[in-house]
C-alpha cells in the first residue's frame, strides 16, 4: 500500500483547518455555534499526520520494494517535525497572535512530507 494518500489527507485536513481558522479570525465565518468543527479538524490532522509518519515503519502500511520504502521513510522523516507545533498549539490561546504563528510552523513539514511521498 502506498502511504501517499495518508500524506495527502493529512495535508488537506491541515489546510482546511488553517482556512477555517483564518476565516474565523477575519470575521468571515462565525463558529460560535459549531466550534467543535475546528477541534475535529485538528484531531483529524494529528491522527492523519501520525498515520502518515507511521507508514514508514508499520509493515501493513510500508510500501513494497526498497526504493518505495526509502521514499516513504524520507517523507515520514520530513513530516516528523510537524509534531512539535501540533502538540504545542492546544496550549496557545486562540485569542493571541501566537496561535496562528505556531499553527503555521507545521506547514513546511507537512508540505515536505507530501512532496516526498509523491516520489
TrEMBL record:
Q: Which residues cross the membrane?
A: 6-29, 41-61, 67-89, 101-117
Q: Which UniProt keywords apply?
A: Membrane, Transmembrane, Transmembrane helix
**What is this protein's name?**
Uncharacterized protein
Name the species this protein comes from: Herbiconiux flava
